Amino acid sequence: MVYRKLAIIGEVGAGKTRLISSMSEIQPFETEAESSIDIGKKYTTVGIDYGRISLSEDSALGLYGVPGQERYSFLWELVKESLWGLLVLVKYGEEPNYQNLNKLLTFFEPQNKEVACVVGVTHCENASDQDLTALNSEIQAILEHHKLVAPVLYVDPRNKESATSLLHVINSINGSFSA
Length: 179
Prior knowledge:
Helix content is 36%, strand content 26%. The chain is of the alpha/beta class.
């Protein structure tokens, strides 16, 4: 069996756990616990969330969601090697966490490892076109700083069709990496 690995990374509250839950064909393993500090929500991921999707009879995709807080970066290390793809979730809000996006891209180095990368913007259902254009410009500037070309898509992690559309894009990119 061929087994591929997709890392799902992003800031706290971006929707990583929800995305895995929406896409996984198995009951996902979730590692949420009550937060001991104020992070804007009651529960947060404290380990590696895991789900799986069968791609064919002889291949599967493991979905690995890691905590967004840098204090859990030792977990980032566990999933960063041998990736088939990297999905970066950015939470739309009044002040997106660009510093976190920069740190994650520096740590995972998709441009150096030739890993297909897609950015998914979440929580943007009520955003204006002007706000989304500004957010997209900021994200593109960070991607350019990392010498990385990655599509930026708007996604609802609660919706299976929306979530899996990100996989189709990563798969399309990976087709271009085939030797």
